[in-house]
Amino acid sequence: MEPVTPDESTARPHSPLSRLKVWHLALLVGFVAVAIAQIQDQRMIEPALIALAGAGFAAYWVLGWMGWRLARRFEGRIGAVALLLLYLAGMAALFLVATVAYLVIEHAYLGGTF
């Protein structure tokens, strides 16, 4: 049996992109619950707007997952706490922009004028 060097034992293998962990699925369930609550709270009856809202929440989850995978590459440079704060601020800004875009689309769809 050959000895293991410290570099080999601490190296984390890269997981494939399609591999989901339990917390990913729990987060997805949370996003779906929020989406359902938001849709029910608005009392929408137009199928197109419901589909748009559902697709928007799904896209937000995918972008969040991909964004976190990308952001983790910079953890060594800026630190874990700073990275988390920047990530959360970015996701909040993305959510705000997506909400405004949805409201503009909903207003135009329902026949509103600007």
Question: Percent of residues in beta strands?
Answer: under 5%
Query: How confident is the prediction overall: mean pLDDT?
Result: 78
Structural class: mainly alpha
Low-confidence stretches are none
Number of helices: 5
Helix content: over 70%
Rg on CA atoms, Å? 20 Å
Silhouette: elongated
Order of helices and strands: HHHHH
Strand segment count: 0
Description:
- This protein is mostly helical and 114 residues long.
- It has a domain at 45-114.
- The protein is 75% helix and 0% strand.
- The chain has five helices and no strands.
- Helix 2 packs antiparallel against helix 3 (47-71).
- The longest helix is centred in the last third of the chain and has 30 residues, at 80-109.
- It is elongated and about 70 Å long.
- The mean pLDDT is 78.
What does this entry show, briefly?
The protein has helices at residues 6-10, 22-42, 47-71, 75-78, 80-109. It has 114 residues and is mainly α.
Summary tags:
single chain, 114 residues, mainly alpha, 5 helices
Blueprint (SSEs and pairs):
Layout (H helix, E strand, L loop, with lengths): L5 H5 L11 H21 L4 H25 L3 H4 L1 H30 L5
